[in-house]
Design brief:
The complex is a heterodimer of chains A (about 450) and B (about 325).
Chain A lengths: L4 H25 L5 H8 L4 E4 L10 E6 L1 E2 L2 E2 L4 E6 L2 E6 L5 E6 L4 E6 L8 E3 L3 E5 L5 E3 L4 E4 L6 H33 L7 H17 L4 H29 L4 H23 L12 E4 L2 E4 H23 L1 H11 L1 H6 L4 H26 L6 H16 L4 H18 L8 H15 L13
Parallel strand pairs in A: 2-11
Antiparallel strand pairs in A: 1-6, 2-7, 3-4, 5-6, 5-8, 8-10, 9-12, 13-14
Helix pairs in contact in A: 1-5, 3-7, 3-8, 3-10, 3-11, 3-12, 4-5, 4-6, 4-10, 4-11, 5-10, 7-8, 7-10, 8-10, 11-12, 11-13, 12-13
Chain B lengths: L2 H10 L4 H20 L6 H17 L5 H23 L4 H20 L4 H4 L5 E2 L3 H5 L7 E3 L4 E3 H26 L1 H11 L1 H6 L4 H25 L3 E2 L6 H14 L5 H26 L8 H22 L16
Helix pairs in contact in B: 1-13, 2-8, 2-9, 2-11, 2-12, 2-13, 3-4, 3-5, 3-11, 4-11, 8-11, 9-11, 12-13, 12-14, 13-14
Classes of the chains: A alpha+beta (about 450), B mainly alpha (about 325).
């Protein structure tokens, strides 16, 4: 049963060759990364207030960024940069972008003029520093701290947050069902799962935002590419390791290494900047809930995808076989089910679903090389909460986590909302270690 | 390309502070994983608590070096208890998910501006090593060690950090050869068998978790004492993954392994950095920029980790029979 090492090496070489090929293909079609900065320079509205002697248009250093709340641009906000007695300001444009030209390579204090913020908005980090000593362009990212209580009643805020939580939870659900299916059939806790979310989102940026493909075509291709990535991963890496009967903890550590490799390949190919894909969509309001048409479409697609998975698992022969393999692979094999084929189908399905989550995440929010890794722990939390290895459990867990993340930002600083979800996970594990829907015998 | 400089930089890592810090964190992990079979993926959290504990006690409470060291270790011990109580009775992968989740939650907590009065927010804490460097017996000056030249402060932090590595290594050597250590190895191999001998498995695992966590906190403390700056962004999960790479490189169930693993790992990182930068500078790699060289290094770390676990799970010094990852 043991494969010779040579064969594994060959399989690994094949995997990395594929990655490298994909890499060259993508890098050829990626436009110059500096383009974003150049366009930002066009709507620079820096005004010199005092202290600078020379003409601002000749200055070669600049500080800039984009003001966004939940992916939607915030315009008309004044940002001020100061250093000693130099001071300049810029007002964010319709894309939320602002840019300030500065004369020197130095560390500038950058702040938001709070009076210019739209009603009910607050900045979590209104005082920042920008360092132009190593690069001529210093990005500054201001984070909105959610809406304050003066303008919107608590009940209305809660309803709004619950709606966002439902949306985020649905996104997490389609990705975490992927983790759950793979864990159920192979026992692997896949730490490289987030990278498939990232792949979906980055493909969407490449095809739709960068190459201008229509959104539906780009979305379908992005999902297919992620599905193919799942197939290649399984064929070149995980299947040979299973054949070697590698321990599950060992495979988990391999997945950590694989996740690091894939993440840095993304960084090399796509650069580290955050990419805006769809620009936020059109705002739709009903009652206290303010959302966009993109979000509503995303939720509809998520629900359809979840329903599709449920039907697949309960009604089709392959779906039933999948559940049989999850329950007991040896017994399933004895009844004539081709376990390896089922695992292959599971990998492709899981990867495609996860890619879909990435596509929707990228469209509704933003994408960068860490998008998937950032939500990986939330995915694990969803799966663990629901009960390891059950698809329905993962959905319930994801909805809980999504709600906790969004609602918690009413009470705690925005940047702690992921932490809140992780603390809830730990608390629930104390109270009910098998998860909300899990069976007790799954515990060791 | 200046090969002498590349060689000197690489050799300097052999006695580097970060090398010692990672060696300490990996020794703690050897206690957890190598000797007890606990999958701790939150070593960054233990190290962060050590670092923040020390800095907080020294800066905000005005404690001296000994009190600050003690406070950092206490924080890590409490963290281990809080994590261990709910999860040590469960299957191994629950501990993995809970520890990584808790470490990440700590990272978010330390980085937020809300509690900047205690943690310094995203700027972190700095200049907390006054008392520590007050104990420095080396007179002010530059010391030429042949391949590198160090200031008196750099010498002192190296003496302390490598001294700690030596003390911890000897302590672990004694502990793992004691009846207590044999019980831990028994738990790693077959929990039920140890339980049937009347041992309280939970208590043993908890002792291991606390001890390894406290050792990890020492790593965190020397890590931040070298530059006297402590920022939340240091303690991301990549810190944990690098510690795992160091541990598996040397051999998980060994004492020498984590130390040699850390030295080899950091020499490898420094060598690839210096060598690739050299190649980029002479134009041999036109498709790479200097910034991308740093990224390629981490890509290699991930590849290293994969290949290591697939082809040599016992590391340099481990015994393959002793380390069959269970599960």
């Amino acid at each position: 049963m043991f494969l010779p090492k040579r064969k594994i090496s060959r399989a690994l070489a094949f995997l990395f060759a594929t990655l490298a090929l994909a890499a060259t293909a993508i890098s050829v079609s990626t436009p110059a990364s500096a383009a974003g900065v150049d366009t930002a320079k066009n709507h620079s509205s820096a005004v010199v207030l005092s202290g600078a002697s020379s003409d601002p248009s000749t200055w070669e250093y600049s500080i800039g960024g984009a003001l966004k709340l939940n992916g939607k641009p915030v315009k008309g906000v004044t940002v001020v940069a100061t250093n000693g007695n130099f001071s300049a300001k810029s007002v964010s444009d319709v894309d939320g972008k602002w840019l300030i030209a500065v004369p020197d390579a130095a560390i500038y204090k950058v702040s938001i003029d709070k009076a210019t913020l739209p009603a009910g908005m607050a900045i979590a980090n209104p005082l920042m520093e920008a360092d132009t000593t190593s690069f001529s362009f210093a990005p500054v990212l201001f984070k909105f701290a959610g809406q304050t209580i003066q303008t919107v009643s608590f009940g209305d805020q809660l309803v709004g947050r619950l709606f966002s939580g439902l949306n985020f939870g649905l996104l997490l659900a389609i990705a975490s069902i992927g983790i759950s299916l793979i864990f159920g059939t192979t026992g692997l806790s896949n730490f490289a799962h987030g990278e498939m979310v990232t792949l979906g989102a980055l493909m969407m940026w490449l095809l739709h935002a960068s190459m201008g493909w229509p959104v539906i075509l780009a979305g379908i291709v992005a999902v297919l590419v992620t599905g193919a990535f799942g197939w290649v991963q399984d064929a070149a890496l995980w299947r040979p390791l299973r054949k070697r009967r590698m321990g599950l903890n060992q495979m988990m550590i391999v997945s950590i290494g694989f996740s690091i490799v894939v993440r840095y390949v993304y960084l090399l190919l796509f650069d580290g900047d955050t990419k805006d894909i769809a620009g936020g969509g059109n705002v739709i309001k009903f009652g206290p809930v303010s959302t966009t048409d993109l979000t509503l479409w995303g939720m509809l697609i998520s629900v359809v995808a979840l329903g599709g998975v449920a039907l697949f698992l309960t009604r089709t022969r392959i779906g039933k076989a999948t559940r049989a393999v999850s329950d007991n692979a040896a017994l399933a094999s004895a009844t004539g089910i081709d376990v390896e084929q089922i695992i292959r189908i599971v990998w492709v399905t899981a990867a495609a679903l996860t890619g879909l989550a990435g596509v929707l995440y990228g469209l509704e929010l933003q994408a960068n090389w860490l998008t998937g890794f950032d939500i990986l722990l939330l995915l694990f939390a969803s799966v663990t909460l629901g009960g390891l290895g059950t698809a329905l459990g993962a959905t319930v867990g994801a909805l809980i986590i999504g709600m906790v993340v969004e609602v918690s930002s009413l009470f705690i600083p925005n940047e702690l909302r992921y932490a809140a979800a992780l603390v809830i996970l730990i608390v629930i594990l104390i109270w009910r270690p098998q998860g909300v829907l899990g069976k007790k015998q799954r515990l060791g | 390309m200046d090969f002498v400089q590349i060689f000197n930089l690489t050799a300097g890592e052999l006695i580097g502070v970060f090398t010692a810090a990672y060696a300490l964190c990996a020794l703690g992990l050897a206690m957890h994983f190598g000797y007890t079979g606990l999958l701790n993926f939150g070593q960054a959290g233990f190290a962060a608590l050590g670092a923040y504990g020390y800095a907080f006690a020294a800066l905000k409470l005005g404690w001296n070096m000994w009190g600050s060291f003690g406070f950092g270790m206490l924080c890590a011990a409490v963290f281990a208890l809080v994590l261990g109580i709910p999860t040590l009775r469960l299957r191994a992968d629950y501990l993995a998910i809970v520890t990584i989740a808790a470490a990440q939650a700590l990272y978010f907590f330390f980085g937020t501006e809300k509690y900047a009065a205690f943690t310094g927010g995203s700027n972190g804490l700095s200049e907390f090593g006054g008392d520590f460097y007050g104990y420095n017996p080396f007179p002010v000056g530059r010391y030429d060690l042949g391949i590198i030249t160090l200031s008196e402060k750099e010498i002192w932090i190296r003496v302390v950090s490598w001294g700690l590595v030596a003390v911890v290594a000897v302590l672990l050597l004694i502990l793992t050869r004691s009846p207590w250590g044999r019980t831990l190895k028994g738990i790693r191999e077959d929990e039920d068998a140890v339980r049937s001998l009347g041992k309280n498995v939970f208590v043993y695992k908890m002792q291991s978790l606390v001890l390894g966590g406290v050792i990890g906190s020492l790593g965190g403390m020397v890590f931040v004492l070298s530059s006297q700056t402590n920022q939340a962004s240091t303690w991301v999960s990549n810190f944990t993954f690098m510690t795992w790479t160091v541990l598996l490189l040397g051999g998980a169930a060994t004492i020498l392994g984590p130390i040699v693993g850390s030295a080899v790992f950091f020499m490898f990182l420094m060598f690839t950095q210096a060598f690739l930068e050299g190649l980029v500078n002479i134009g041999a790699l036109p498709f790479l920029s200097i910034a991308q060289v740093g990224q390629i290094r981490y890509l290699l770390v991930g590849l290293f980790l994969m290949l290591l676990v697939i082809f040599r799970p016992q590391g340099f010094f481990g015994n393959k029979k002793e380390l069959q990852f269970n599960g």
